[in-house]
C-alpha cells in the first residue's frame, strides 16, 4: 500500500500498486466503493497483466483518510487523485473509472492533462442532477446530519449486501458530501468536459441500463461508446470478458 498527502492537514489518499510497464493503468471506483474490489480481477487477466496498475481509494472511501473538513466535491476528489499520481511519479496514465470515479476522471483529465493519456469510463456520471432513482440523488436528498444520524443505516440495508460491503467502509459524512458533489456536477459539467477532451475515450454502457443519453453527440466528439451485452451498471462483474477487452483496446 502507498499513500500521499492530499490536504493541508496531512490527510492521506491510499492505493495498492502492482508493478509493471508504463503507461500505468489507474483504477477509480464509484460512490461507496473501493477500487481493488471492483477492478483487481480485471487487472489480473492475461490480456492486461504486465502493466503498472494502481487501485486508488478516493478520500472518505476504503483505506484512504476521511477528513471531516474536506469538501468531497468532484474537483476535491480529482485533486486528491492528482496528488497520488504525482507522488507515484505517474504521467500519461490510462484511467479506468467506474460511475462517480468516471466523473472524477473526467475532471482530472481536464484539469491535469499531463496525467492522463486515455479514459475508459464505465457508466460514468456525465450530467448534474441525475434522476431521483440514482443512489447519489437518494443520499443527497437528505441533509447531512439527517443522513448520518438516521438514513445511513437504511441506505446500507437498501443497497444490498454486495454494495453495502464496501459502502459501510466509507465515512458517512464523506459519503453524503460525495453524493452531493456528484449530484451538483462539475463546472462546466462532465459531459461538456468529456466532449472537449482529445485523449482516447471509451465509454462502456451496460445493455440493461438502457440507451445512453446523448450518445450521438458523444460519438461525434470522438468518444467510442460500447454497449456491453448482458451487463448492468457493474459491467466489470456482469461481463468481465467484454470489460477486459475494452480496457485492453481489443473490444
Computed Rg:
17 Å
- Uncertain residue ranges: none
Bin the strand percentage.
Answer: 15-25%
String of helices and strands: EEEHEHEHEHHHHHEHEHH
Give the helix/strand class: alpha/beta
Could you give the distance between the termini?
31 Å
Strand line-up in the sheet with most strands: 1-2-4-3-5-6-7-8
Main sheet makeup: 8 strands, mixed
Mean pLDDT: 96
User: Count of DSSP E strands?
Assistant: 8
Annotate the secondary structure layout:
Elements lengths: L1 E4 L6 E7 L2 E8 L6 H9 L7 E7 L16 H14 L5 E6 L1 H12 L4 E7 L12 H6 L3 H15 L2 H7 L4 H13 L5 H7 L3 E7 L8 H6 L3 E5 L6 H4 L1 H9 L3
Parallel strand pairs: 3-4, 3-5, 5-6, 6-7, 7-8
Antiparallel strand pairs: 1-2, 2-4
Note down, in words, how this protein is organized.
This protein has 251 residues and is of the alpha/beta class. 41% of the residues lie in helices and 20% in strands. Strands 1-2-4-3-5-6-7-8 form an eight-stranded mixed beta sheet, with helices on both faces. Helix 2 (74-87) crosses helix 3 (100-111). The protein is globular.
Amino acid at each position: 500500500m502507498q499513500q500521499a498527502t492530499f490536504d493541508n492537514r496531512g490527510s492521506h489518499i491510499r492505493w495498492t500498486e502492482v508493478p509493471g510497464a508504463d503507461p500505468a493503468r489507474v483504477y477509480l471506483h464509484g460512490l461507496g466503493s473501493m477500487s481493488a474490489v471492483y477492478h483487481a480481477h480485471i487487472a489480473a487477466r492475461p490480456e492486461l497483466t504486465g502493466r503498472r496498475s494502481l487501485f486508488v481509494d478516493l478520500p472518505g472511501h476504503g483505506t484512504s483518510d476521511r477528513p471531516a473538513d474536506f469538501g468531497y466535491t468532484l474537483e476535491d476528489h480529482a485533486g486528491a487523485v492528482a496528488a497520488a499520481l504525482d507522488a507515484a511519479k505517474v504521467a500519461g496514465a490510462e484511467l479506468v473509472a467506474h460511475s462517480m470515479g468516471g466523473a472524477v476522471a473526467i475532471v482530472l483529465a481536464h484539469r491535469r492533462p499531463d496525467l492522463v493519456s486515455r479514459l475508459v469510463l464505465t457508466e460514468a456520471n456525465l450530467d448534474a442532477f441525475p434522476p431521483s432513482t440514482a443512489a447519489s440523488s437518494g443520499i443527497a436528498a437528505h441533509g447531512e446530519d439527517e443522513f448520518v444520524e438516521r438514513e445511513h443505516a437504511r441506505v446500507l440495508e437498501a443497497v444490498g449486501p454486495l454494495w453495502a460491503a464496501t459502502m459501510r467502509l466509507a465515512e458517512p459524512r464523506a459519503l453524503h458530501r460525495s453524493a452531493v458533489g456528484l449530484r451538483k456536477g462539475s463546472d462546466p459539467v462532465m459531459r461538456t468536459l468529456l466532449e472537449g477532451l482529445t485523449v482516447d475515450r471509451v465509454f462502456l454502457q451496460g445493455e440493461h441500463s438502457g440507451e445512453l443519453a446523448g450518445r450521438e453527440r458523444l460519438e461525434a466528439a470522438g468518444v467510442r461508446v460500447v454497449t456491453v451485452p448482458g451487463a448492468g451498471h457493474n459491467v466489470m462483474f456482469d461481463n468481465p470478458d467484454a470489460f477486459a477487452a475494452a480496457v485492453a483496446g481489443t473490444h
